[in-house]
Amino acid sequence: CSALRRGGGGVRGRHVRRWCLKCVRPPLTLPPCVPGDGCGHTVLTPHSGTLTSKNYPGTYPNHTACEWRIQAAEGSSLLLAFGDMDIESSKRCASSFLLLSSPSDGPYCGNSNPTPLVMNSSSVTIQFNSTTHRSGRGFLLSYATSQHPDLISCLDKGTHYHQEQISVFCPAGCKGVMGDIWGNAKQGYRDTSVLCKAAIHAGVILDELGGQLTLSREKGITLYESAFANGLHSKSFTPPFPACDHALEIAGFNASSSWHEVNAMGQYTPWTAEQAAFSAYGSSWAADPSSGTEWLEIDLGGRKNITGIITKGSSDRYNFYVKSYQVFSSRDGKNWKAYRSSSGQEETVFEGNADSLQEVSNTFIPPILARYLLIVPRSWNQRIALKVALQGCQVARLKAPRPYGERLRCGQLGAEGAAHTQCPKGGSHPDQHPHRSHPDPWSRHKSRESRYVQLRAEG
């Protein structure tokens, strides 16, 4: 027999189980899918499988037909679970329909999923037929033998369950079905992930076989990192922090330079750094002269969780505004780090204003944890001019051990201990302090913050 190994991974020793799998050929007397132009994703085995209409989850074609024959071992019965059904309705489902026969059940149409069906037979024929229609995703159906009454659909997510621990059976064929996963086997998976694809990604089950898995729900983490494993890409995700979009109080501004306007009447108008506050009456901050080395520093008076920024141009008297800018952050006002998006590949250049009057918002995903923010304009109209407001919340909301959201771990995964937080190893270092002279925000070292939890496979 061939052996399927399931183990803990990592460098530490793990108890490894082995299952011997007999090579069993499906006892089918007919091809699993009768030729037809309405067949979609199809994976059929004697124990479980998944099938869809053509183009699912896109609109199924007009005038198509397909027939599937499912045959399990003699003496067993079949359980059918509809993950999705969206077949354009018609009177008595005469136009487009899904029909079960041998034994007979249906026809089905409309957009309500039928309840799971227990077929008192070891075989069933499934027919799909469509005529002219305007819309409809078609259907997704999974099946298993009666030995697996806890069968779920390929579309089931962790958010569909509220138990702290559950055991479910995933059918074969879920890898090719649409659905996103966030996280990885080491950290765990966000509970909005589709469960069966997460289990395949984690290496807990094989797509061609399906299998039983146990899920445990735990406190979430602040960053789910992406990974490529077992032919699947997972996504990275930083959950938004609840009630963390308040206007942050700014303790002070500082700037590389300020324009001091004197009009024809000899009247003096200051465009100093303090004018960058939304609450400041009259003009905004404006640089003098405008060059690629200008910057505006914001001091929040203490570390804050910064989730967004709002910018505005000069005023109705002038058409000064910043078209694009970068953001740098610092906890001490000395070491600066360029903001990067959740992918972390490149420094983010934010899109700014298109005129001097409208307010433009940008969201920080992931949020910034810092006391100081440095705004470095990259492009502007006529003259660099800014009013700035920041959104976020107190840093106390970020303190461990209260991460936000929940995550699910697949395949009998249990916590190995408390969460271990990896601290950043320094940051970027401008050559000079912005309070004293012009900083060089492009002279810096790269660093990333991450949080992870060690996981193990239970023996």
From TrEMBL:
A single Gene Ontology CC term: transport vesicle
Region annotated Disordered, chain positions: 418-459
Limits of the F5/8 type C domain: 236-393
Domain LCCL: 148-234
Broad class of the protein's primary localization: cytoplasm
Keyword entries, A-Z: Cytoplasmic vesicle, Disulfide bond, Membrane, Phosphoprotein, Transmembrane, Transmembrane helix
Cystines in this chain: 39-66
Gene Ontology molecular functions: signaling receptor activity
Bilayer topology: Single-pass type I membrane protein
PANTHER family in UniProt: DISCOIDIN, CUB AND LCCL DOMAIN CONTAINING 1, F5/8 TYPE C DOMAIN-CONTAINING PROTEIN
Protein name as it appears in the record: Discoidin, CUB and LCCL domain containing 1
Organism: Chelonoidis abingdonii
